[in-house]
């Protein structure tokens, strides 16, 4: 299948299947993120959101179809070219583990020291600018043990953007935040996307916050892409899956039970045989 990408396409999945070994988690996935867009990838627990993130960062290779970042087919990249590609991406993991033996400033400076040869004065300017963007310039001198969990998330965000990535991937950015921090984080993601003119892709199940800032939303479930559109389009949807998800209804097409797989059946048979 061929497709024409708009010139500002940063990330594109073209009829992609993803999984582990011979287990396919998702198939027929076609999504894209354009420069300047906030894109939310949503779905229930175990629907494959993290798997999508792994595919975008080339940690796993598509079983079928093509994943393109910055116009390059990521399955074709190895070694130095893959390293260069990843340098254009900032990834913010849920546990954005900070170095506890370094202060806030040095945590944010770390990628600059690792990947660039810029001067100490330039490092200071860049780090303080990014800390300012997340509201923490005056916390630069603090030790990690002296800051709150919410502040630590923002320091991790400053570190993820310090190399000025063209694509920022967020893994559950709203998980475990109080209602005020939720709103602040969502606003920050939108503002940073506009300011850095990058693309931001969030994997999340938080409807309210992501709908408030996203340009485009993709929903995955039942092993495929279930719905896509702007937050307004999805809010108006009458699709039972979309409604169950948006209205947080316990009953509907989204199954509570993890599906029975051949691997489970085999495991159970072996176990039963051992016991008899
Ligand atoms: N490394 C792995 N090896 C084999 N199967 C995996 C692996 N990682 C995830 N899976 C399976 O892939 C499916 C999707 O998992 P994934 O972590 O992508 O879901 P998710 O949508 O991010 O879930 P959650 O919201 O609960 O974190 C699950 O069935 C999971 O068991």
UniProtKB/TrEMBL annotation:
Q: Name one Pfam family in it.
A: ABC_tran
Family annotation (SMART domains): AAA
Q: Which InterPro entries match?
A: AAA+_ATPase, ABC_transporter-like_ATP-bd, ABC_transporter-like_CS, P-loop_NTPase
Q: Which residues form a coiled coil?
A: none
Q: Which GO terms describe its molecular function?
A: ATP binding
**Transmembrane spans:** none
Highest taxon of source: Bacteria
Q: Which UniProt keywords apply?
A: ATP-binding, Cell membrane, Membrane, Nucleotide-binding, Transport
Domain ABC transporter, which positions?
Answer: 11-247
PANTHER family referenced in this protein's UniProt entry, alphabetically? INTERMEMBRANE PHOSPHOLIPID TRANSPORT SYSTEM ATP-BINDING PROTEIN MLAF, PROTEIN TRIGALACTOSYLDIACYLGLYCEROL 3, CHLOROPLASTIC
Give the protein's recorded name.
ABC transporter ATP-binding protein
Source organism? Yanghanlia caeni
Q: What is the lineage of its organism?
A: Bacteria, Pseudomonadati, Pseudomonadota, Betaproteobacteria, Burkholderiales
């Amino acid at each position: 299948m061929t497709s024409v990408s708009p010139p500002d396409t940063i990330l594109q999945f073209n009829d992609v299947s993803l999984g582990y070994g011979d287990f396919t988690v998702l198939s027929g996935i076609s999504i894209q993120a354009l420069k300047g867009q906030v894109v939310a990838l949503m779905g229930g627990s175990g629907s494959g959101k993290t798997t999508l993130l792994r595919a975008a960062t080339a940690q796993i290779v598509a079983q079928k179809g093509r994943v393109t970042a910055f116009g390059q087919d990521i399955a074709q990249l190895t070694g130095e070219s893959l390293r260069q590609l990843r340098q254009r991406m900032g990834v913010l993991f849920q546990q954005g583990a900070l170095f506890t033996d370094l202060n806030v400033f040095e945590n944010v400076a770390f990628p600059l020291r690792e990947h660039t040869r810029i001067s100490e004065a330039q490092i200071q300017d860049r780090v303080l600018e990014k800390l300012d963007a997340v509201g923490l310039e005056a916390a630069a001198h603090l030790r990690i043990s002296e800051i709150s969990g919410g502040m630590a998330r923002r320091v991790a965000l400053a570190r993820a953007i310090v190399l000025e990535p063209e694509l920022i991937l967020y893994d559950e950015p709203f998980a475990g935040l109080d209602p005020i921090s939720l709103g602040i984080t969502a606003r920050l993601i939108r503002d940073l996307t506009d300011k850095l003119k990058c693309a931001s892709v969030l994997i999340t199940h938080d409807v309210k916050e992501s709908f408030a800032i996203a340009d485009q939303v993709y929903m995955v479930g039942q092993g495929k892409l279930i719905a896509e559109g702007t937050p307004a389009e999805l809010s108006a949807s009458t699709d039972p899956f979309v409604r169950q998800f948006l209205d947080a209804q316990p009953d509907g097409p989204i199954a509570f039970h993890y599906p029975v797989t051949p691997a489970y059946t085999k495991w159970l048979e072996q176990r039963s045989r051992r016991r008899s």
